[in-house]
UniProtKB/TrEMBL annotation:
Subcellular location: Endomembrane system
Bilayer topology annotation: Multi-pass membrane protein
Keyword Methyltransferase annotated: no
Domain of life: Bacteria
Main location: membrane
Protein name per Swiss-Prot or TrEMBL: IncA protein
Length: 443
């Protein structure tokens, strides 16, 4: 009976440890602070693509959303309010705009907001606003949407959650000039975020990564329901379709083995993208195939914008270190080394505390033995008191190490802020010197 209870206790501890490891992995996946450099690059490219989309609408705006558009306001509204099917939550105030002047003013405002989103001006406001305006156009243009519209929209949605204006932007240029306000005001710190690692950057990154995995998984499963992807003719039907053909690829008919291999490989890649993109060993190959597939779609099937945007979205799996300067990478490595050293000390302290707790538990079990003599009981109690005192010292050491780790992180943050201030001062001096040299040259 005692053996059964011990076995149950052991398996219970094993389940608890496994659950704890899963919880730690979940926490690391979602809430490990990450630098926003990759997101900042994607912001520029996605903003440029969204701006292009609005400029295309502007080429014949009233035909798209005007009072006499190809799809009228009443028709667009009825596609969502239940007149032609199930009612949904999609709404747009563009259904009620009839004046061409108002429509043009609204579209000019949309283009301006999207341009600010691209260059990174007021990104905390302009990106959510650009997302809202995009949704209004999508709900107005129902029936005339393309995959490009969808991917630009959801990428913008996830970027709105992140400090993607902290680098390569007007906001990043303004921040050093308002460093005093940013240090003293939570509002300005939010409006002009720095490029330090943040949970928000990681959450936005993970959401976009998972969204891509879902898209490819269901896209691959949808393809697998047909026959052409299994018998290897799907690529042929794509490249020989004159409606989409931008380059004549019908010469591939002479190489049916290549067509079949491309079809089967594409199906395999799309279905298993969600599994193979995460391991570091397979990720470069998966991204290389993504680049080849979407570049081919853009080059050979006339969908340059869609293919380009899918390549941009896949860039979310690139490390922020690829877009950092050498000095920034060195600072990150030094900070990581300090924290890793402290983590090792903390782990050792935790292991030592666990050993002492186990020793104390064994002593308590021995003290419960009624056959112990008085001298042996006294000796065991003395030993237990020593273990408790040692455990208290370990706990104090653990708390001290955690405080030192927090100080390291705060110190690194201050050093980065000081570095930014110094760079700003040096740049101002250079500007004044160049201006003075210019004035003396004129004289």
């Amino acid at each position: 009976m005692s053996g059964t209870s011990a076995s149950a206790s052991s398996s219970g501890e094993s389940f608890g440890e496994a659950l704890s490891r899963w919880a730690e992995a979940w926490d690391r996946f979602w809430f490990t602070p990450t630098r926003p450099h990759t997101l900042c690059v994607i912001r520029i490219l996605t903003g440029a693509m969204l701006l292009y989309c609005h400029l295309v609408l502007a080429s014949d705006l009233l035909a798209f959303v005007g009072p006499d558009a190809w799809m009228s306001n009443d028709m667009a509204r009825q596609l969502h309010d239940g007149a032609f099917g199930v009612s949904d939550w999609a709404r747009s105030y563009l259904w009620y705009l009839e004046s061409p002047t108002v429509i043009w003013l609204h579209h000019g405002f949309t283009i301006a907001v999207t341009a600010m989103y691209m260059i990174g001006l007021g990104t905390r406001i302009t990106i959510p606003l650009a997302l809202f305006l995009q949704l209004m156009y999508l709900h107005r243009l129902t029936g005339a949407l393309f995959g490009l519209d969808q991917i630009v929209t959801y990428t913008t949605m996830y970027l709105a959650l992140t400090p993607c204006g902290s680098r390569y932007s007007i906001d990043a240029w303004i921040r050093p000039r308002l460093i005093g306000k940013c240090e003293s005001s939570a509002f300005w710190r939010f409006m002009l975020p720095d490029d330090s690692p943040s949970v928000a950057a990681n959450v936005g990154t993970r959401l976009l990564q998972l969204h891509l995995c879902v898209i490819y998984l269901f896209g691959g499963l949808s393809k697998a329901r047909g026959e052409t992807w299994w018998n290897g003719t799907a690529v042929w039907y794509a490249v020989s379709n004159y409606e989409y053909q931008s380059l004549d690829m019908t010469w591939m008919a002479r190489y049916p083995a290549i067509i079949s291999a491309l079809s089967n490989a594409t199906l395999f890649w799309e279905v298993f993208y969600c599994a193979l993109i995460w391991p570091r060993v397979t990720r470069p190959f998966v991204l290389a195939v993504a680049l080849g597939v979407h570049a081919s779609i853009g080059a050979f099937l006339g969908m340059i914008t869609f293919g380009s945007m899918m390549i941009i979205a896949n860039g979310i799996f690139l490390s922020p270190r690829l877009f950092q300067s050498k000095e920034q990478r060195q600072l990150d490595d030094e900070a990581a080394a300090l924290i890793e050293h402290d983590d090792a000390d903390v782990d050792a302290a935790e292991a030592e505390a666990a050993e002492q707790e186990e020793a104390e538990r064994e002593l308590n079990e021995q003290l419960q033995n009624p056959d112990l003599s008085a001298s042996e009981r006294a000796r065991l109690k003395e030993k237990r008191d020593k273990i408790r005192a040692a455990a208290a010292r370990v706990k104090r050491r653990y708390r001290a190490l955690k405080k030192r780790e927090e100080k390291y992180e705060a110190r690194v943050k201050k050093l980065r802020e000081r570095e930014a201030k110094i760079k700003t001062i040096v740049q101002k001096r250079r500007d004044r010197k160049s201006k003075g040299d210019g004035d003396s040259t004129i004289e």
